[in-house]
């Protein structure tokens, strides 16, 4: 499990793009070539990802001098 105790979403919620509804996770769990499959777990207001996938996608800025940018680590340019 990841740093915090966030439960992994159930595979039963997985769905296709055309079947996604509001407040369903848009994290792509597989791409079989013809059709992407999305997590479909419940999201919090204003988020595209469920708590499980959100903590996978977003990282904390490191103290190594990398510049943080909108939740993602942006490497320094040489």
TrEMBL record:
InterPro entries: GcrA
The organism's place on the tree of life at top rank: Bacteria
Entry protein name: Uncharacterized protein
Lineage: Bacteria, Pseudomonadati, Pseudomonadota, Alphaproteobacteria, Hyphomicrobiales
């Amino acid at each position: 499990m990841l740093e915090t105790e966030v439960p992994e979403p159930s595979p039963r919620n997985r769905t296709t793009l055309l079947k996604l509804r509001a407040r369903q996770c848009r994290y792509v769990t597989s791409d079989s070539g013809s059709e992407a499959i999305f997590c479909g777990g419940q999201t919090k207001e204003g988020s595209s990802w469920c708590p499980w996938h959100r903590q996978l996608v977003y990282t904390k800025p490191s103290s190594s001098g990398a510049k943080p940018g909108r939740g993602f680590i942006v490497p320094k340019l040489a």
